[in-house]
Amino acid sequence: MDYSKTVSDATIESLGACLHNTSGSVPLHERFRALFTLKAVGDERAINVVAECLQNDPSALLKHELAYVLGQIRNPVALPKLESVLRNVNEDPMVRHEAAEAIGAISDPSSIPILAEFQSNPAEHIAVRETCEIAKAKIEWDNSPEGIAQLKAGKAAPTERETIEAAAKAFGDSADDYEPASSDGNDAPFPTIDPAPPSALSDKPALESTATLRAELLNVKLPLFERYRAMFGLRNAAVQAGMKAGRDGGEEEEKEAVFALAAGFADKSALFRHEIAYVFGQLSTPTSIPSLITVLRDDNEEDMVRHEAAEALGSIATDDVMTALEEFVGDGPRAKTAPQVVRESCEVAIDMAEYERSQELQYANGLSGSTEIEA
After folding, report:
1. Alpha-carbon distances, residue 122 vs 92, 114, 119 (angstroms)
2. Which residues carry a binding-site annotation?
3. Which of these, 312, 282, 284, 281, lies nearest to 296 by C-alpha position?
4. Which residues lie within the region annotated Disordered (predicted)?
5. DSSP class of 159
6. Which of 63, 132, 141, 269 could bond 119 through an S-S bridge, CB–CB 3.0 to 4.6 Å?
7. Does domain 268-375 have CATH number 2.60.120.510?
């Protein structure tokens, strides 16, 4: 639904007050919900509210998420704000990295020069440099003959229907025999703009295709962009396998795809490791829980990786996940020594987990009390 046509200026102002915490008493997780409600609205009013908070808020975690949302809205009007954050060397590198990734998500060719500038600066923070490398490659790919052809064909990313049909084909079934992964009318299994288009799954047997993608994922001689493509290809392989779990090796295939992704946690690049955790958050598979908890509890791991592991765990929401997250908040045994961004991530993740375990219909529920929108 296009909320921008049904949400009043007064409601936008109310969401902005929640996001900006003008009262001084809004919990961080409620601010996140307001943010993702504004993402659903997605018009210039919402962009301006989000961008203003990005310039002024003290929380690196929230600012990182604000930049992410601006990229996902994919409106070039946000580019000057994002470029300003990227150029601010006094800003937290995690926030600047997300600003660069958001620029890549918007994918305007006019952004290539600034991304190239920061990619080539040896004095720049490595996570920022690497993100600019990937974002620049994504924009170039999106505007290449291959990328344009896939976009015109509606295949810039596999739709849910295509994923179902691929799984059905493996068994000679009808795609109509398969339940869709979601029932909200959104064809994409992951309604996100990812940092790189997924590598296409081959016609080879699933385990063989997974082995090929794993080799590409872990090949440090390949450009990061190509390794990211393998990463998102493995994500899609896990989705396909999950659809046929319990039938002819589906569970084994899903585990192999997840284990292949988990092997990426040994990579030297913190950016790469953080993206592995992000993908696990998309998959929300219990198979990834042990590796994510290990990352979250590792005091020697980079904050951006631990933060992403926490949020990924929040999307899974099992009892052991809740126990691990609660270690980092309130009077938890790790709360006093954990970095602020990790503590805050666990707070938000617990709210996400409670949502997953609840009967709530929508996480981004900032409009739930509004009479402007009919259910």
Report:
1. 18, 15, 8
2. 64-65, 97-98, 274-275, 307-308
3. 312
4. 174-204
5. -
6. 132
7. no
